[in-house]
Design a protein that fits this description.
The protein has 149 residues and is mainly beta. Helix content is 7%, strand content 52%. The strands form three sheets. Strands 3-4-8-7 form a four-stranded antiparallel beta sheet, with no helix packed on it. Strands 6-5-9-10 form a four-stranded antiparallel beta sheet. The C terminus is likely disordered.
């Protein structure tokens, strides 16, 4: 990656030369989608949800982001943002944590979906991994409260 210059020259008699410089980014995409780890099988109202997203083996490092039910999460819910360079390969691993308290609004129908998005070089390459979180007590609360209105 870097700035490259291309030059074109015309032969005699004019010897006219034209050159141009452009930035070229070489991307090495990871072999796999992001990995979402952590969490538990079921959640209740007020539980602390802590998940990690890891994307291994890219160059440059991937920019990671989280979505909850299709909506970007707030910066205050993100933790442990890291980029690790592997000396031997020169490739990079990106990590980003997600931390929030489970609320009724997060589990429509008793299920929440979280997605970890990985983006390299401003969208030259991107991938997503999604995980469903089950809120056992949310499903019964949602059904029973829906009849109140």
């Amino acid at each position: 990656s870097g700035t490259y210059r291309c030059e074109i020259s015309v032969e005699a008699p004019t010897f006219y030369t034209q050159s141009s410089r452009h930035n070229l980014t070489v991307v090495v995409p990871p072999l796999e989608a992001p990995e979402i780890s952590g969490g538990k099988e079921y959640y209740s109202v007020g539980d602390l949800i802590m998940l990690n997203c890891t994307l291994r083996g890219s160059k440059p490092a991937a920019k990671l982001s989280w979505k909850l039910n299709g909506h970007p999460v707030g910066e205050g819910q993100l933790t442990n943002r890291q980029s690790i360079v592997h000396e031997k390969s020169g490739l990079e691993t990106s990590k980003l944590g997600l931390r929030f308290r489970a609320g009724i609004q997060d589990f429509p129908g008793g299920v929440a979906t979280v997605s970890c998005d990985g983006d390299i070089a401003g969208g030259v390459w991107s991938t997503t991994q999604t995980k469903a979180l089950s809120g056992g007590s949310f499903a019964s609360f949602t059904s029973s409260s829906s009849g109140l209105f």
